[in-house]
Amino acid sequence: MYAEFHTAILAIELATQKGWKFLWIECDSTMVVDTFNESINPPWKLWNRWLLCKNLLSSMRFKISHIYRKGNSSADKLANYGILTRTFTWWDSIPIFIKEDYYRNELGLPNYRFRQF
């Protein structure tokens, strides 16, 4: 949970730097969602960052919700990209490797995963 919670905090800090006033985070970790909904405490190593983050959230309309990993293939592919590159990356347009998934989601089309035996 530490890594996922840290990533959510980074996203909020980046949104603040960009001047965004509306932010909706979908997360596949129910523990992170519960932490932001103040049902459980954050990891103690991130307690100070969490307090600063709550202050940042007070100036924006914020929503966090749970989504199953298979329900958001774009986020899953972006997370896998992040694991492989291990560097901060920012795109001003949709990366080519998630365009198909993004547009399927935008159109409300289902997403299937197949496994060969």
TrEMBL record:
Pfam families xrefs = RVT_3
Gene Ontology MF, one = RNA-DNA hybrid ribonuclease activity
Where is the RNase H type-1 domain positioned along the sequence?
A: 3-81
Top-rank taxon of the source lineage equals Eukaryota
Checking InterPro entries in the record gives: RNase_H-like (IPR053151), RNase_H-like_dom_plant (IPR044730), RNaseH-like_sf (IPR012337), RNaseH_domain (IPR002156), RNaseH_sf (IPR036397)
Q: What is this protein called?
A: Putative ribonuclease H-like domain-containing protein
